[in-house]
Design goal:
heterodimer, A: 153 residues, mainly alpha, 4 helices, B: 65 residues, 434 Repressor (Amino-terminal Domain), globular
Chain lengths: 153, 65
């Protein structure tokens, strides 16, 4: 089946089908949210919702839903099914998250040099939180994939 | 959907990984098909049958006893 969306989808047919489901579910939730915002703005004037804010929330509802469903589905790491491969992948994830923190700090300090120690702390804190979120999402995805693959052997 | 993919694959001493590589899917997808948790497309059924030298009937047809 040809669609302009094809380039975004995985080659594996199971993953492709699941991804399409997640995108469709996300679209329905987005439609419901936008309908709700429209009804509120149209019929309950005292509850006026800011347009920019609603668009921002709508975008994140869609992205967040599809992304979280993908992570929880356990289909990201399709070949992790033994204890050895799980542990080695976990190491890669840790290194990747630490790498993110270091590169973030490096790039940030090259382009915007902080003026004070408090600014430095702020940047480092942001990068560490970012790294932790990245690690947590990757870890959940890996754990779910490992659990799923183990029973399929 | 119940099927005989796992039994047939084991008889030919082929690993899930090798079969997956040959038919162009992931090992996870082969595992899900074998467990009956994912119904493959006809195209994939044919590819699996060809790799295992079996017919679609041999692999996917349920015979009631």
């Amino acid at each position: 089946m040809n669609s302009w969306l094809s380039f975004l989808l995985p080659d594996d047919e199971y993953r492709e089908k699941k991804t399409l489901y997640f995108l469709s579910e996300g679209s329905i939730i987005l439609l419901l949210f936008l309908s709700g915002v429209f009804i509120i703005n149209r019929y309950i004037p005292r509850l006026q919702i800011d347009l920019e804010f609603s668009i921002f929330i709508a975008i994140w509802i869609f992205i967040g839903y599809v992304f979280l469903r993908y992570i929880i589905s356990g289909m990201e790491y399709t070949d992790i099914s033994t204890d050895g491969t799980y542990k080695s992948k976990l190491k890669v994830i840790i290194i990747k998250s630490c790498g993110f923190v270091m590169i973030f700090n490096l790039v940030y300090s090259v382009f915007i040099l902080p003026n004070s120690i408090s600014e430095w702390f702020e940047i480092i804190a942001v990068s560490i939180i970012g790294g932790l979120i990245l690690f947590l999402l990757d870890y959940i995805s890996l754990k779910k994939s490992y659990k799923k693959n183990k029973v399929l052997l | 959907m119940k099927n005989n993919v796992k039994i047939t694959r084991l008889k030919t001493s082929m690993t899930q990984e090798k079969l997956a590589r040959k038919v162009g899917v992931t090992r996870q997808t082969i595992g899900l098909i074998e467990k009956g948790e994912y119904n493959p497309s006809l195209q994939l059924c044919v590819a699996i049958a060809k790799e295992l030298n079996k017919t679609l009937d041999d692999l996917f047809w349920e015979v009631e006893v």
